[in-house]
């Protein structure tokens, strides 16, 4: 089977599989804040992220998942050469050149999915968690900032801060369903400090010290949100409304998770309130880039 054929069938999350990005989230709701002539490019980036993550989240055997993700990396080579073979990469062809999307960040999205597919994200060391959030969250925000016209060093630093904070927050949000599917984003250092020793990822959810293990992750997310807020004025004006809305929506989510405490891991993950998100989009649309 050729690489492009494999990439054309990346696989989706099968029945009962954990899907980490399947539902509508703040990124989707904030899309109206992206200028109309750039919105298609933003959707193409989000679609690529969804395609590769669907491979990791699917029910296929681990070697098959990793093979498909390797094929996606070859497909990025084809995209760069002007020969994309999948609907997603065809949609990325014009944005790649028009908005100078960094190929390395597209590849980082694939590498993050490979960490999921390869079983790395089960009580990973702190260094691996940091690498994962950089590849999955940082890469995504850097790509979206590029779509919005800012490929500067300042935008890159902002993207790393917001991407890490955003991804840590969504990992905490999805802690329950992920653990029941055999994943656990909490770093092993935090689990050890909290005194959690469990035979399975699902058992961690019932441990009375779960809040203590989550606290350092939440604290890091909060610190990185603060970093992103300080850096936002350095980002190009046209990019700010969308990025500010995404930042604030995920900050609100982190506060919701903190209020729910240990219950956040055993209850259905909270989704952003549609009315609140719509109001935020309208507020930022009228507020503009100020």
UniProtKB/TrEMBL annotation:
InterPro entries per record: Isoprenoid_synthase_dom_sf (IPR008949), Squ/phyt_synthse (IPR002060)
Top-level taxon: Bacteria
Organism of provenance: Caenispirillum salinarum AK4
GO molecular function: transferase activity, transferring alkyl or aryl (other than methyl) groups
Listed name of the protein: Squalene/phytoene synthase
């Amino acid at each position: 089977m050729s690489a492009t054929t494999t990439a054309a069938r990346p696989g989706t999350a099968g029945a009962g599989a954990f899907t980490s990005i399947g539902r509508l989230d703040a990124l989707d709701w904030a899309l109206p804040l992206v200028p109309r002539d750039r919105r298609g490019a933003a959707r193409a980036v989000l679609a690529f992220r969804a395609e590769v993550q669907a491979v990791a989240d699917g029910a296929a055997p681990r070697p098959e998942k990793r093979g498909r993700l390797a094929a996606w990396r070859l497909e990025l080579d084809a995209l760069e050469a002007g020969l994309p073979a999948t609907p997603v990469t065809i949609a990325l062809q014009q944005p790649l050149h028009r908005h100078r999307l960094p190929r390395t960040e597209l590849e980082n999205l694939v590498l993050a999915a490979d960490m999921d597919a390869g079983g790395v994200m089960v009580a990973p060391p702190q260094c691996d968690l940091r690498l994962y959030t950089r590849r999955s969250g940082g890469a995504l925000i850097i790509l979206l900032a590029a779509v919005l016209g800012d490929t500067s060093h300042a935008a890159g630093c902002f993207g790393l801060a917001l991407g890490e904070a955003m991804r840590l927050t969504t990992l905490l949000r999805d802690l329950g369903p992920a653990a029941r599917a055999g994943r656990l984003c909490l770093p092993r250092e935090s689990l050890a400090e909290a005194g959690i020793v469990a035979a399975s990822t699902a058992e961690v959810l019932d441990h009375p010290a779960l809040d203590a293990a989550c606290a350092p992750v939440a604290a890091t997310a909060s610190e990185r949100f603060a970093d992103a807020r300080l850096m936002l004025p350095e980002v190009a004006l046209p990019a700010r409304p969308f990025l500010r809305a995404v930042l604030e929506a995920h900050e609100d989510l982190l506060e919701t998770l903190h209020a729910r405490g240990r219950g956040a891991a055993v209850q259905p993950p909270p989704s952003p309130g549609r009315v609140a998100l719509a109001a935020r989009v309208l507020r930022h649309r009228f507020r503009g880039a100020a």
